[in-house]
Amino acid sequence: MEIKEILEKTGALLTGHFLLSSGNHSEKYVQCARLFEFPEYGDMVAKMLAEKIKKYKPDLIIGPAMGGIHLAYSVSKYLNIRNIFAERENGLMTLRRGFKINKGERVAIVEDVITTGKSVKEVIDIVNESGGNLCCIGSIINRSNSNPFDVPYEYLIKLELPIYSPDECPLCKKNIPLEKPGSRFIKK
């Protein structure tokens, strides 16, 4: 089964007017958490990503919260290695819960969707500060225009979905209500 078909079947590929975490707008949004509602599809996708990154021989998989938590666990299961996640505390991405990266450990970062790479870049800083050896980055979906990282980047599908700056957004001009679907916008 193709990745795009899985995204559509699980309701992970949404259409509307969305505020992205970058501040830009789009008429398409991928909510990969929906994919992981269905373990058979989540496992299928994780196994595909594990196959792509195993050549880099990681010792540890880390994912940024929220999008990378399920994926890090599932990918690490197929590689039979340890996994952890980073999360925000006082606005900064950090390791909590007793998680640590050992000096010299080969680390792969996984994320569900990468657009600007902001969360992944914050996790890269954690890996570097911990003395880990970043070997690769993997994602289910690549929405970026290029590889925004200095290490190998593997992904399962590249989706070139339209992205607009707020002042040039045709959806805003049509007065279509703006939605804030991402994890950074969860209301408390």
Tag the structure with descriptive keywords.
188 residues, disordered C terminus, two-stranded antiparallel ribbon, transferase, magnesium ion binding, Orotate phosphoribosyltransferase, magnesium
Describe this structure in words.
With 188 residues, the chain is α/β, with parallel strands linked by helices. It has one domain (3-185): Rossmann fold, CATH 3.40.50. The chain is built from five helices and eight strands. The chain has helices at residues 3-9, 39-53, 67-79, 118-130, 170-173, and strands at 13-19, 25-30, 60-64, 82-89, 92-94, 106-114, 133-142, 153-158. Strands 5-4-3-6-7-8 form a six-stranded mixed β-sheet, sandwiched between helices. Strands 1-2 form a two-stranded antiparallel ribbon. Helix 2 (39-53) packs across helix 3 (67-79). The longest helix has 15 residues, at 39-53. The chain starts with a helix and ends in a 15-residue tail after the last helix. Residues 184-188 have low confidence and may be disordered. Orotate binds at residues 115, 143. One of its GO terms (molecular function) is orotate phosphoribosyltransferase activity. Residues 39-140 form the Phosphoribosyltransferase domain.
